[in-house]
């Protein structure tokens, strides 16, 4: 290839890098997914039931599976609040007629449940199928999912006790969901196109408007809420959640600090660390000088090992373990040297 | 007479050298019984620490060389991946007791009170998991891109991490905030410190490949495919709907890098989705699949959770953008000011709609406001640090901050927000935070309407 044609090629490459990229641009990167691969992972079910697998399950079977696989977290009747918020409860026959859970606006509901909120039955099917049981997700067969969902719908008094749910009648069930008319997308927090332009939000118009007043913005400061005493201490000792230096300290919430007892230290190890021995010697490995295990192996059978080592450590040396010299350690007291050497000869533990 | 207000903030611990030489000798001789009295006396002399200092020759930390100046330090690579100082053990991500009953579906909060600048250290990045976190093997991880039907995408493809990391990459700094951040406080004050009020917030430099490039590589039909479903590889296989407009803009990307290293497992290693300005639940971790579709998906976390209950009983669905918000991180709730005098009041501001334009701070509960210093660079949909000078005169004060973004949106007060949305929303609480300072210097969490 001539010089000229090379530079044309380079220009051509740069030319496509910022423009809209044509299909199959990244040569050799990625490969086509096989149909079996797509099928294995494409498990989502949409509100129009696209993706819903074929299958069926009745309330009775659902109760069996629920008891076995779901009740430990959700309670036998989906009412438990022990591990997760309750699945069932909180709706009335009237809500099924209107498609709006009245308790949501009246404030009568002590707690919202899954079925007081959810507006699309596909959502529940999809989630059970992909994520349940909590500790063994994706282990349920479609028929199990239909059965569990049938049981939940029966608990919610949406379907009778002899009901069988299937891919055929999901659409009918959708029309009975108690909060099916309970969602709005008329707000400014959807980041895509507005409903007017075929999207689902209002195009980003905020609902709350404040103005940036700077001086004498109000006549009094209304405090709506303060931290209750129990909440002050519920998060433990706040003093321990801040640095012990800097412009502020954490407020001590649980009284005097507990006496801190350090774990029993190893004085010989501390001494070795403090005096820089550990910079060159590992306990079980060579660094610059030999590991203490190597020293032990060489000296352990020599009767005068302790004295010889004390002398060596004090005076330093070169050549025994390689070319790098060991500096003299005359600044160490004899008794400390002895402690160190004894520690090394005892296995440096 | 010393003007206390012109002094730097001073530490209120026992003055140094508070024992006389005679007392030191007494201690050496074994007489320790008076030590307690000495400490009490030291407490009583707090009003005149300067006098105590003047009597000494100086600071023992200066006069006596410490061990780090007189011994050999540790060799390089003693900690091959590095660790914070042993003196930094108190700032950790923490759970809020009682918030969740199982750790696998819980949240840990970032310690905003002690962080600087705008980048959250990867190890302190908040966590929120729906089915526990996994340490996914990158050699076995795959990203699949397919269409909800064949007309939306010409060629469904599979990419390995090796392949994704060969593609043109971008590195951008963005904040991520859980939609439920500050949700504990929708109704009333509930938690003591900024870690628990605002700590489901972090900001990192993420590195990865624009999703737009991948979709185009697969031959997407933008006319028909107007939504994207992102799906995770963990047990929950978290799914969220993203509008195609965001993907087409180039803002959305699949990231493997975070703050110069690979993502941490708790934050989606080896691949997660980055959806700037949008609540964290859409930033799907352990990202395994992208499906393009022509309709939104109403997944569990956009149909049962992360929906906002309004006073009329309707839930707002697909509420995703995190609107402009700010919080003062120092001083903040659960802290005690050490003394009267000068402080640099500092905090964070951010907006899911773009850049922060201005931050105002009030010291009197919102009657008067001053514009704070913005520490640059100010980035799109990223945390922005602000600072302002304050001399605390020892009197009660209420500190607030108010963010304004480039769209002109002004962060609302609690009163304004509740008037429209009631008190039961849980999600998207971006009201102005108030910290009350009392005479003792203790700072507590209050809500000003």
Q: How would you sum up this structure, described in words?
A:
The complex is a heterodimer of chains A (349) and B (449). Chain A is mostly helical and 349 residues long. Chain A is 37% helix and 5% strand. Chain A has helices at residues 3-18, 35-41, 59-69, 71-74, 93-98, 103-106, 114-117, 121-131, 142-155, 170-174, 229-233, 267-274, 277-280, 292-299, 305-315, 334-345; strands spanning 31-32, 56-58, 164-166, 183-184, 223-226, 248-250. In chain A, strands 2-3 form a two-stranded antiparallel sheet. The longest helix of chain A is centred in the first third of the chain and has 16 residues, at 3-18. Chain B has a five-stranded mixed sheet. In chain B, strands 5, 6, 9, 10 and 11 form a five-stranded antiparallel sheet that branches. Chain B has a five-stranded antiparallel sheet with strand order 19-18-22-23-24, with no helix packed on it. Chain B has 449 residues and is α+β, with helices and mostly antiparallel strands. Chain B is built from ten helices and 24 strands. The interface between A and B is large, with 110 and 143 residues. Strand 4 (183-184) of chain A pairs parallel with strand 14 of chain B, so a sheet runs across the interface.
């Amino acid at each position: 290839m001539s010089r000229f044609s090379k530079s044309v090629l380079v220009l051509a490459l740069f030319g496509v890098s910022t423009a809209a990229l044509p299909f199959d641009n990244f040569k050799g990167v990625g490969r086509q997914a096989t149909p079996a691969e797509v099928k294995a992972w494409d498990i989502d079910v949409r509100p129009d039931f696209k993706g819903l697998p074929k299958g069926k399950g009745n309330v009775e079977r659902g109760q069996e599976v629920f008891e076995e696989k779901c009740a430990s977290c959700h309670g036998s009747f989906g009412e438990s609040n022990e591990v997760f918020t309750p699945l069932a409860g909180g709706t009335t026959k009237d809500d099924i007629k209107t498609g709006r859970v009245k308790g949501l606006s009246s404030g009568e509901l002590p707690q919202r449940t899954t079925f007081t909120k959810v507006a699309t039955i596909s959502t529940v099917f999809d989630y059970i199928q992909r994520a349940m049981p909590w500790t063994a997700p994706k282990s349920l067969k479609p028929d199990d999912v239909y059965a569990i969902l049938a049981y939940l719908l029966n608990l919610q008094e949406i379907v009778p006790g002899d009901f069988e749910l299937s891919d055929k009648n999901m659409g009918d069930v959708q029309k009975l969901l108690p909060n099916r008319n309970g969602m709005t997308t008329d707000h400014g927090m959807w980041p895509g196109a507005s409903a007017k332009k075929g999207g689902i939000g209002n195009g980003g118009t905020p609902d709350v408007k404040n103005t940036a007043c700077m001086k004498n913005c109000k006549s009094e400061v209304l405090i709506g809420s303060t931290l209750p005493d129990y909440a002050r201490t519920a998060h433990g000792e706040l003093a321990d959640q801040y640095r012990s230096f800097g412009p502020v300290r954490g407020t001590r919430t649980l009284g005097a600090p507990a006496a801190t007892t350090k774990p029993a230290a190893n004085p010989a190890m501390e001494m070795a660390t403090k005096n820089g021995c550990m910079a060159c010697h590992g306990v079980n490995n060579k660094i610059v000088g030999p590991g203490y295990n190597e020293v032990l192996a060489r000296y352990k059978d020599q009767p005068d090992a302790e004295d010889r080592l004390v002398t060596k450590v004090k005076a330093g040396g070169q050549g025994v373990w390689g070319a790098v010299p060991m500096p003299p350690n005359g600044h160490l007291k004899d008794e400390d040297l002895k402690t160190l050497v004894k520690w090394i000869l005892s296995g440096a533990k | 007479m010393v003007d206390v207000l012109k002094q730097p903030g001073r530490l209120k611990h026992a003055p140094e050298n508070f024992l006389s030489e005679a007392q030191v000798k007494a201690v050496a001789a074994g007489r320790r019984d008076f030590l307690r009295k000495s400490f009490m006396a030291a407490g009583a002399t707090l009003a005149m620490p300067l006098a105590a200092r003047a009597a000494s020759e100086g600071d023992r930390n200066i006069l006596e060389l410490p061990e780090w100046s007189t011994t050999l330090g540790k060799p390089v690579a003693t900690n091959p991946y590095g660790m914070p100082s042993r003196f930094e053990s108190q700032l950790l991500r923490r759970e809020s007791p009682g918030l969740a009953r199982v750790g696998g579906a819980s949240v840990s909060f970032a310690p905003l009170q002690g962080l600087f600048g705008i980048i959250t250290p990867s190890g302190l990045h908040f966590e929120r998991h729906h089915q526990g976190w996994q340490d996914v093997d990158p050699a076995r991880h795959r990203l699949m891109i397919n269409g909800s039907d064949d007309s939306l995408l010409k060629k469904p493809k599979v990419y390995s991490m090796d392949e994704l990391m060969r593609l043109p990459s971008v590195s951008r700094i963005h904040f991520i905030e859980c939609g439920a951040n500050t949700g504990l406080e929708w109704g009333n004050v509930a938690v003591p410190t900024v870690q628990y009020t605002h700590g489901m917030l972090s900001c990192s430099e993420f590195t990865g490949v624009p999703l737009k490039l991948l979709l185009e590589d697969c031959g997407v039909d933008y006319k028909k495919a107007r939504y994207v479903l992102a799906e995770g590889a963990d047990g929950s296989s978290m799914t969220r709907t993203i509008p195609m407009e965001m993907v087409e803009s180039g803002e959305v990307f699949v990231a493997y890098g975070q703050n110069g290293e690979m993502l941490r497992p708790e934050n989606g290693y080896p691949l997660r989705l980055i959806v700037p300005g949008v609540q964290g639940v859409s930033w799907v971790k352990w990202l395994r699949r992208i499906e393009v579709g022509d309709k939104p998906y109403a997944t569990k976390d956009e149909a049962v959770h992360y929906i906002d209950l309004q006073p009329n009983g309707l839930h707002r669905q697909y509420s995703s953008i995190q609107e402009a918000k700010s919080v003062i991180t120092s001083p903040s709730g659960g802290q005690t000011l050490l003394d009267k005098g000068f402080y640099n009041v500092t905090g964070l501001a951010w907006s899911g709609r773009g850049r922060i334009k201005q931050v105002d701070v009030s010291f009197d509960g919102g009657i008067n406001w001053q514009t704070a210093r913005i520490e640059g660079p100010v980035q799109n949909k990223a945390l922005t640090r602000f600072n302002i000078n304050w001399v605390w005169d020892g009197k009660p004060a209420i500190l607030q901050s108010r963010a304004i973004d480039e769209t002109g949106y002004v962060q609302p007060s609690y009163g304004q927000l509740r008037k429209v949305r009631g008190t039961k929303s849980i999600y998207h609480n971006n009201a102005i935070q108030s910290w009350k300072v009392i005479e003792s210097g203790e700072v507590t969490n209050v809500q000003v309407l």
